[in-house]
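Notebook, bench 3.
Goal today: get a predicted structure for ABC-2 type transport system permease protein from Saccharothrix carnea so we can plan the truncation constructs. The sequence was checked against the plasmid map this morning, with no discrepancies at the termini. Length recorded as 253 residues. Pasting the sequence as submitted so the record is complete.
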Amino acid sequence: MTLLAVERIKLFSTRSPWWCMLLALGLTIGITAIIAANWDGSPMPVLGAVFTHTFGLYVIMVMAALAVTTEYRFGTIKSTFQAVPDRISPMIAKAVVVVLLSALVGLASSFGSWGLSWLLAEDNSDLALTTANDWRHVAGVGLVFAAGALLALGVGALVRQTAGAVSIILVFALVVESVIAFIPNIGDDIQKWMPFTVASKFIFGDPDASAIPEGAGPPAIGELSPWGSFGYFAAIALAIYIISLVVVKRRDA
């Protein structure tokens, strides 16, 4: 519990996490509000309320990476490892704090977006959370934020430099996963198994078809079920984080 308290204090003693949380909430809820207010008059589906969750996800991943790279930048990680020589315990405590915080921000952004959509959409008859899929579309955002934060922590611990870690996260998520589809013959097959593409299947996959106009909605992604997609994304995040723990344990601070 002491390590958890220490990591919580270290995280909230700087301004960057506060700005990242505000930006994540502002982007997702704000853009969703604009979409809902300008919906075309047809019933707005639940998917429309969480369509912008990726904006917040990327910001929260940047926050998670900063949680560890900032310590390397200012040298405070050395004091931490001197106080707790096994090194693994403080890294796990940091992960617990950051992952739980990220999950809460994800839930706040998704339910905030859904609530504003309910208020602003001209026709909100399809926004009711009546099925398990509807709840997954909204509440599942918190799980994706948590897994994404764990992945970003692992990248940050491996790279140790803020610019490098943030660049890897954003370039891979925003550029590499899209560009890889242009590889002849095998690009589409590879893209289906890219982590962020698969994570989107968890949020958007298997929606209630009756609530979506014909030809709209997300395409089929890979062969995994929505929950299988989340398991795949979470497994990749956990694997990268475990690798980072091994590297942190063996490498000089």
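The radius of gyration is 19 Å. The chain has eleven helices and no strands.
Flagging this for group meeting.
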